[in-house]
Amino acid sequence: MAAKTLTNESSDAETSTVTNASKGEWFIIQTYSSQEYKVKRSLEQRIAAFKLQDQIYEILIPEEDIIEVKNNKKVESTKKMYPGYIFVRMNFNDEVWYMMKRIPGLSKFMGNQDTPLPVKDDEMLKVLRQVGVKVQKYQIDFEIGDMVKIIAGPFRGYTGPVKELNAEKGKLKSMLLIFGRETPVEIDFDQVEKATK
Prior knowledge:
This protein has helices at 36-49, 94-100, 121-130, and strands at 4-7, 14-15, 25-31, 56-61, 63-70, 73-80, 85-90, 106-109, 137-140, 147-150, 159-166, 171-178, 181-188, 192-194. It has 197 residues and is of the alpha+beta class.
């Protein structure tokens, strides 16, 4: 069966323009203290100067809005979720690495000593969901009525039929047999796989 593509394009994070969400891989860059925005601006300037738009696609500084109550007044502020880190979606190669290593404030790529390692898809999906950025395309190979096996979360190991698909939330609904009773549950796309017959 051909994979279905479900799309959603909402974003509340501090991020650069998305050109094509299906290109590149996500990498994590460590910066010096409080240098995240400076590194992001420098990187954007170099992308334009060296015409690297076809190599570096997106720069993300995950943030969340915090509401505090002080003296009976609501105070809203924005907080970096991963202080000292920037997420970059790109095609990694020697040219890009050489350019990025020379950006002031950039400490290192996360990975082993010689080669940066891309972030695993399921880990990056969690980060994007935390900041309100949905994966631009959900590649799923199941549809309503198909049996799925839950591979993560509190219902791990259970199997049930797909009852609903929600692309906007990246979730599906299924009916699971729990303690002898059918129970409706909502599960993230990345927590299930198609059940083998």
